[in-house]
């Protein structure tokens, strides 16, 4: 348990992969969710982009991006408080969380303009 | 720690120390050389074999260029041309690029991180033999004129038995799966070696960048290869038995193959690129004479690449009819990968800008890499744009882009690395003059071939057509490309001549000839089988720049583990984060078992190819027997480490702790296993939701009650394993054997129950993909239950021999981990295969 708690600390290098694992889960969820939703209940193509599918995916994306941004902020705070190995770990993790946040926003952007199932 | 002040002792003692180490680590000669497990020898074997396959792949490329140099050629028949193009791609990707880079990593990593060997040396040997035998089997298909001819990505239905009725596709599927055992073996042990055997003090942030790159590559192999292994198994089952996974009429879907292939295939590009980039990041600072700019940013970029590259696979499938929005996701993700690539390139350029670069031979190849790879990256961004991708799909433009990325991104850095580390391999320096001729011929030849090929592609020439009419306007471009191809070949011939000649005529290299900063140059040139007489503490990323005397101190045995009189092969086992020493890892020595196991697997491979199933069955049993016998010689076995004596002040042997490298190897192997399992689940749900002719029966054929009872037996076995481990932590081993036998019994019960479910389900595996994929899932669970039962049984027997107990508690920890994995996976399987269909139906 103690080891598990240590791994959650923002200076642990496990956070090198934390943001990108969240990004990967989100990516699989939106691709898989889109595919299943289009197979099960495709919306009328005339509706354009603002369908229940796109809105659901956008809300999920927003929540993911906020979570990642919060973790990035936390890592930056930790990086300031440490030197050496812990600073390195927190600093690299912080930028990886920033990248993951931007990657969510960038990949999700087409949801605003493209209909889901065409 | 056993830091010995060797200055206080005489030269005779030092000589004795070298003799002791040579006795323990030395390589046998003659036939017994086949038993060698040492990373230096095996790394070289990997690289030499990879080079041999490179020559084969190169000759195939020249045949292709000869055939299409001019229109309406009859140099090759269409059938042979298809075999040659397929084998060119297959040999270059699977038998050259990945193995040679793995070989380099196997050779270099222990030396760079201050270790004496990789953590699982016998696994290295097994990997090499599987690679060699798999490569020979695959290549032999060309001699028989039966080579695969469906393209290196073997798309179904072209590769299925209806359209490829011969043995070609079977050669590919079985041969590649065999070779992939090698890749996975190397992946697992490189991960564990980098994380757990760095020399003392080498914390993560002090690790050489090459080790970061190889760590990412190895993890990507572990996660990326299993989808293709699954795909290959499914396609071979379809071809051999008729299980219709990719046949629409039977409820399958050919696009599933594309998903499984590219789930592997796109990360593979980065699996090839990352170690090559590691070479670049190692060489540039040395020749610029300063540390790399932005070490942390490069680590950031490596990590991003390792992940994002798994989110791009669908960009190879933009023309198969995926919704526009989904295409946009993959298009955006494909563009994102330009960010980490750009960061690395700017870090390398900034290092050159701020340093004083010396333009030696390795740097010439690095400059060639920068030019060609940046061009390939730019056409990659073009291909990420869906409309452009549609226009040039399956044309020579894509072939040209791929070669710019792979030859620029892998072959040029590899050549730089070979020239850079040549003095380490041989103790001699290469010829600058012949080397420069070789470089310029390759560089000019490459660009003449492939720059022109972009235009051929933009003019509409499709790939893999064996000839063309003269009226399309492609004639002159093809002729120029072919001339360029032969110029490039002449360049590689020059390089090979240079390398061959240098072994005899090269000037002897002085110590650390390039004034490098990393530990591999603290070796003797060429290195001894044990690498270092003693293992130093490290406090910096640039040990040889900041402590130029370190190589001499290490050779004089002034640092850790400077003893071998106990007869064990020892490394430091360090904390993965801080590099603090935790235990002494003792690794196994030379053995016939890896060769024998690989030979048995080769018999299995050939028997499956020839449809001699009884022989294949016998081969499997023999291979398992060899592997289990191999595993028997471990821990406290007399051939491993019968006593636990260490030098005063040294930490314990890993087999006497609860956290040795075996546990890390098991964890990493289970990541690969988990990737295989997730790929299987993906296949199940994909066919269920997408396949147009999927037929879900009204009632599930699987007995839920029997599966749940099997799951409870599994939970019981796992609980017994966990309680054994808990008691061992408290130094209690009373009743240990009974607990282990109990777990084996419960594993056996689970096995019987799964067998009963399979028997009673009456699955029509050749009629519907539903039944076929259920059967594969049940076999997966069956194999795992059998393995759990057998290894628990063996553990119980080892307690009887006193190889396991409170004095040597390590092995049950590893076995318990396997049981834990089994529990999680089996219950997910029950939910996916037996519960969900009952809940939501077809």
From TrEMBL, chain A:
The chain crosses the membrane at residues 20-43, 55-76, 88-112. The lineage of its organism: Bacteria, Pseudomonadati, Pseudomonadota, Gammaproteobacteria, Oceanospirillales. This is Uncharacterized protein. Keywords: Membrane, Transmembrane, Transmembrane helix.
Automatic annotation (TrEMBL), chain B:
Residues 581-838 form the Heme-copper oxidase subunit III family profile domain. GO terms for cellular component: plasma membrane. The chain crosses the membrane at residues 42-64, 84-107, 128-147, 171-197, 209-235, 269-288, 295-316, 328-352, 364-390, 402-422, 434-456, 476-501, 615-632, 663-687, 699-720, 740-759, 779-797, 818-840. Residues 24-539 form the Cytochrome oxidase subunit I profile domain. It is found in: Cell membrane. It is a multi-pass membrane protein. Its EC number is 7.1.1.9. GO terms for molecular function: cytochrome-c oxidase activity; heme binding; metal ion binding; oxidoreductase activity. Pathway: Energy metabolism; oxidative phosphorylation. This is cytochrome-c oxidase. It comes from Vreelandella populi. The gene is ctaD.
């Amino acid at each position: 348990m103690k080891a598990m708690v240590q791994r959650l600390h923002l200076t642990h290098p496990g956070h090198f992969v934390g943001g990108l694992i969240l990004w990967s889960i989100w990516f699989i969820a939106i691709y898989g969710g889109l595919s299943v939703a289009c197979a099960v209940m495709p919306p009328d193509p005339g509706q354009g982009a603002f369908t229940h599918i796109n809105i659901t995916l956008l809300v999920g994306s927003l929540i993911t991006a906020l979570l990642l941004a919060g973790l990035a902020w936390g890592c930056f705070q930790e990086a300031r408080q440490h030197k050496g190995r812990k600073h390195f770990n927190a600093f690299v993790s912080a930028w990886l969380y920033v990248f993951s946040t931007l990657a969510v926003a960038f990949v999700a952007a087409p949801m605003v303009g493209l209909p889901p199932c065409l | 720690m056993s830091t010995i002040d060797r200055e206080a002792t005489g030269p005779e003692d030092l000589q004795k120390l070298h003799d002791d180490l040579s006795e323990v680590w030395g390589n046998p000669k003659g036939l017994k050389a086949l038993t060698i497990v040492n990373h230096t020898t095996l790394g070289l074997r990997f690289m030499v074999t990879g080079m041999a396959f490179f020559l084969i792949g190169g000759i195939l490329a020249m045949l292709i260029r000869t055939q299409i140099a001019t229109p309406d050629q009859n140099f090759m028949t269409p059938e042979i041309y298809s075999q040659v193009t397929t084998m060119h791609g297959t040999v270059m990707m699977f038998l050259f690029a990945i193995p040679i880079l793995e070989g380099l990593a196997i050779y270099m990593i222990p030396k760079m991180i201050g270790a004496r060997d990789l953590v699982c040396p016998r696994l290295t040997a097994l990997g090499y033999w599987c690679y060699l035998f798999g490569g020979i089997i695959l290549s032999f298909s060309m001699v028989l004129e039966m080579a695969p001819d469906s393209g290196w990505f073997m798309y179904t239905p072209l590769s299925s038995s209806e359209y490829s009725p011969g043995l070609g596709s079977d050669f590919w599927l079985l041969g590649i799966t065999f070779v992939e055992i090698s890749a996975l073996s190397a992946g697992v042990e490189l991960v564990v070696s980098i994380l757990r055997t760095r020399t003392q003090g080498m914390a993560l942030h002090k690790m050489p960048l090459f080790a970061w790159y190889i760590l990412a590559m190895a993890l990507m192999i572990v996660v990326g290869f299993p989808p293709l292994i699954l795909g290959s198994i499914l396609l071979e089952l379809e071809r051999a038995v008729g299980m219709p996974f990719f046949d629409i009429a039977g409820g399958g879907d050919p696009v599933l193959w594309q998903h499984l292939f590219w789930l592997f295939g796109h990360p593979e590009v980065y699996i090839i690129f990352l170690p090559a980039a590691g070479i670049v990041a190692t060489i540039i600072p040395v020749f610029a004479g300063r540390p790399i700019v932005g070490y942390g940013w490069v680590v950031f970029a490596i990590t991003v690449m390792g992940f994002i590259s798994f989110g791009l696979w669908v960009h190879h499938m933009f023309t198969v009819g995926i919704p526009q929005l989904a295409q946009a996701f993959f298009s955006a993700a494909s563009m994102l990968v330009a960010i980490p690539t750009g960061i690395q390139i700017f870090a390398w350029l900034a290092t050159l800008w701020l340093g004083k670069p010396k333009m030696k031979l390795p740097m010439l190849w690095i400059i060639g890499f920068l030019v060609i790879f940046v061009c390939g990256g730019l056409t990659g961004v073009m291909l990420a744009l869906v409309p452009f991708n549609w226009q040039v799909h399956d044309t020579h433009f894509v072939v040209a882009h791929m070669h710019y990325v792979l030859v620029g991104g892998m072959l040029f850095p590899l050549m730089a690395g070979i020239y850079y580390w040549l003095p380490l391999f041989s103790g001699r320096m290469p010829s600058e003059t012949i080397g420069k001729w070789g470089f310029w011929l390759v560089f000019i030849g490459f660009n003449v071939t492939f720059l022109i090929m972009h235009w051929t592609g933009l003019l509409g020439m499709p790939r893999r057509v064996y000839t063309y009419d003269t009226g399309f306007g492609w004639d002159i471009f093809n002729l120029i490309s072919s001339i360029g191809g032969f110029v490039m070949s002449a360049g590689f011939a020059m390089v090979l001549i240079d390398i061959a000649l240098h072994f005899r005529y090269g000037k002897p290299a002085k110590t650390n000839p390039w004034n490098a900063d990393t530990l591999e140059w603290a070796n003797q040139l060429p290195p001894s089988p044990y690498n270092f007489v003693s293992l130093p503490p490290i406090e910096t990323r640039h040990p040889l720049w900041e402590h130029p005397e370190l190589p001499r101190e290490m050779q004089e045995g002034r640092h850790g583990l400077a003893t071998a009189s106990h007869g064990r092969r020892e490394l430091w086992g360090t904390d993965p984060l801080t590099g603090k020493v935790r235990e002494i890892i003792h690794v196994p020595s030379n053995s016939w078992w890896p060769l024998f196991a690989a030979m048995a697997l080769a018999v299995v491979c050939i028997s499956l190819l020839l449809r001699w199933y009884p022989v294949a069955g016998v081969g499997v049993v023999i291979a398992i027997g060899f592997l289990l016998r191999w595993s028997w010689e471990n821990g406290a076995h007399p051939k491993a480490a019968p006593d636990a004596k260490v030098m005063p002040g040294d930490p314990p042997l890993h087999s006497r702790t609860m956290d040795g490298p075996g546990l890390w190897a098991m964890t990493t192997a289970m990541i690969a296993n988990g990737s295989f399992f997730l790929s299987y689940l993906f296949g199940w749900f994909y066919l269920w939701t997408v396949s147009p002719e999927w037929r879900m029966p009204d009632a599930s054929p699987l007995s839920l009650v029997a599966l749940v009872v099997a799951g409870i037996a599994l939970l019981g076995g796992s609980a017994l394993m966990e309680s054994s481990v808990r008691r061992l932590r408290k130094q209690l081993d009373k009743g240990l054997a009974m607990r282990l036998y109990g777990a084996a019994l419960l594993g056996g019960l689970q096995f019987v129950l799964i067998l009963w479910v399979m028997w009673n389900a009456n699955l029509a595996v050749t009629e519907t993909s539903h039944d076929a994929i259920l059967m594969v899932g049940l076999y997966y669970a069956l194999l795992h239950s059998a393995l759990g039962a057998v290894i628990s049984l063996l553990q119980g027997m080892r307690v009887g021999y006193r190889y396991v107990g409170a004095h040597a508690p390590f092995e049950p920890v590893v076995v318990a981990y396997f049981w834990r994995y089994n529990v999680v996976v089996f219950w997910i399987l029950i939910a996916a295969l037996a519960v969900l269909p009952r809940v939501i139906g077809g």
